[in-house]
């Protein structure tokens, strides 16, 4: 990547200043203007700077792949687990927000009592004839409301909002990984089936070679050594089939697991062999500066940084007094009928102020902890952005070089096919021994297998590129994505560092 672009400056609140913790320390990242140029491949345009295709699996024009992607978005168990974590995080946000609201509790105590004449009654003058045994009815309401004068609750809610966003982005990351994994497994499955077809074709060729040698041996033109070589080659080629069939079964089961299916459940659907889908001729990759808006891991790191910043504000606010308004209203009587009388009323109301005077260093230590966690989150955010750019750059290189390798292997396959045909013809004419035919067949099988692997590698490298570009995870956000949606504040309530950085 070229390093000639403008600076990406992310203002990250580091360290508290007053109860709002507004001190900032910038994270500066040198933004590339464009992705580095890779060698152009005559058959395809490796990349373009248009908008990234967010439904990239459709560019393979394979209905089966599109069907699998649709189902993994609805059935993947890891995605369902991540969705539950978002719901849990939203519920925890509600618990945190409740700290800033008034609390009202009701109480009812109806008890039959007996006072000891040798107890506290010895210190007071009881009413004449007052019984020692009596009922006592006590009905009341108590309320409290902590006034968030110094922002402790407000910053705690802000941190909880950021954690909800972080859990949502983590879910998006799980979705992106699931989509990429099912696509890669599917493409590898088709590659394994292609290699299986190649191996079976070579088994047929080897069998014809055995028949050819046997015929020449019967006519006295071949030797038993050549027959042994032909039969050994047939056995060798046949021996390549079991590992390929094993890989095929494992990939079908891997896809089934991603879809939450039992082993072999998709065998009837995926067992019929198909070729590896061809990649599109043009692959837009966008600009480096827009990558951070799509990558769930970058957005998650940003949300964690925001949460850590807000938690620092909470730690600062803990140094300030806590003011709580409290009140109580009670009805108390020894006869149930007297509860309705005004004279049975008792109440109290007033503020309660708690001032931290000596905490043994607890508050200071907690603030230092939060500030360190905030700085760590800032470093992790910076690292995540750099990793995102690196992964895209690496994927671009791998995709381009895989296409160059495919072009070279295509020429090798053509030459080896010509060599095998020529060697078999010359063997029929008695000009060469069977060893030449055997070697030509080995080289052809090797180049055909390598070519099939290259076709698969190109397709899987493209999937890896799309995964690095962060596209497609939003396919899981259809209606009903969350069974128990919880509000996390109005849109725009939490400004994002990314939007500020690339504005």
Name given to the CATH architecture: Up-down Bundle
Low-confidence stretches: 1-24, 482-503
Structural class: alpha+beta
The separation of the N and C termini measures 21 Å
Describe this structure in words.
With 503 residues, the protein is an alpha+beta fold. The chain contains eleven helices and six strands. It has helices at residues 63-75, 77-97, 152-218, 224-238, 241-258, 267-270, 288-294, 296-317, 362-428, 434-469, 497-501; strands spanning 7-13, 24-30, 103-114, 133-147, 322-333, 345-354. α1 (63-75) packs antiparallel against α3. It is elongated. It starts with 6 loop residues before the first strand and ends with a helix.
Please render the helix and strand layout as text:
Elements: E1 7-13, E2 24-30, H1 63-75, H2 77-97, E3 103-114, E4 133-147, H3 152-218, H4 224-238, H5 241-258, H6 267-270, H7 288-294, H8 296-317, E5 322-333, E6 345-354, H9 362-428, H10 434-469, H11 497-501
Helix pairs in contact: 1-3, 2-3, 3-4, 3-5, 3-8, 3-10, 4-10, 8-9, 9-10
């Amino acid at each position: 990547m070229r390093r000639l672009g403008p600076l990406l400056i992310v203002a990250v609140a580091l360290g508290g200043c007053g109860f709002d913790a507004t001190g900032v320390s910038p994270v500066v990242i040198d933004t590339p203007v464009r992705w580095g140029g890779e060698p152009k491949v005559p058959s395809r345009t490796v990349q373009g700077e248009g908008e990234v295709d967010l439904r990239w699996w459709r560019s393979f024009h394979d209905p089966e792949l599109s069907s699998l992607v649709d189902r993994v978005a609805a059935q993947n168990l890891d995605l369902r687990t991540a969705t539950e974590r978002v719901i849990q995080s939203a519920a925890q946000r509600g618990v945190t927000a409740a700290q800033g609201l008034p609390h009202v509790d009701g109480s009812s105590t109806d008890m039959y009592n007996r006072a000891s004449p040798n107890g506290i009654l010895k210190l007071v003058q009881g009413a004449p004839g007052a019984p020692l045994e009596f009922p006592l009815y006590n009905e009341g309401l108590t309320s409290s409301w902590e006034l968030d004068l110094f922002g402790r609750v407000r910053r705690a809610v802000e941190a909880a909002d950021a954690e909800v966003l972080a859990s949502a982005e983590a879910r998006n990351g799980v979705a992106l990984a699931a989509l990429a994994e099912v696509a890669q497994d599917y493409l590898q499955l088709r590659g394994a089936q292609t290699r299986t077809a190649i191996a079976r074709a070579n088994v047929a060729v080897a069998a014809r070679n055995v028949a050819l040698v046997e015929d020449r041996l019967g006519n006295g033109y071949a030797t038993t050594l050549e027959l042994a070589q032909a039969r050994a080659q047939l056995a060798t080629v046949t021996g390549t089939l079991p590992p390929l069939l094993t890989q095929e079964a494992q990939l079908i089961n891997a896809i089934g697991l991603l879809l939450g299916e039992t082993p072999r459940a998709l065998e009837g659907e995926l067992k019929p062999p198909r070729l590896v889908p061809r990649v599109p001729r043009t692959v837009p990759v966008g600009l480096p500066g827009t990558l951070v808006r799509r990558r769930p891991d970058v957005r998650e790191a940003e949300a964690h940084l925001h949460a850590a910043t807000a938690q620092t504000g909470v730690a600062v606010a803990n140094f300030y007094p806590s003011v709580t308004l409290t009140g109580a209203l009670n009805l108390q009587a020894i006869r149930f009928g007297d509860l309705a009388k005004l004279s049975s009323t008792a109440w109290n109301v007033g503020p309660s102020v708690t001032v931290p005077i000596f905490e043994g260093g607890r508050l200071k230590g907690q603030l230092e902890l939060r500030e360190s966690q905030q700085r760590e989150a800032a470093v992790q955010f910076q690292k995540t952005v750099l990793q995102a750019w690196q992964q895209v750059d690496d994927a671009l290189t791998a995709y381009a070089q895989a296409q160059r390798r495919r072009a070279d292997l295509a020429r090798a396959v053509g030459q080896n096919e010509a060599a095998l045909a020529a060697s078999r013809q010359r063997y029929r004419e008695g000009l060469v021994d069977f060893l030449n035919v055997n070697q030509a067949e080995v080289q052809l099988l090797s180049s055909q297998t390598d070519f099939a692997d290259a076709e698969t590698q190109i397709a899987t490298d493209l999937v890896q590129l799309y995964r690095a570009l962060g596209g497609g995870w939003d396919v899981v956000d259809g209606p009903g994505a969350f069974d128990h949606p919880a509000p996390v504040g109005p849109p725009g309530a939490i400004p994002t560092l990314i939007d500020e950085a690339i504005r």
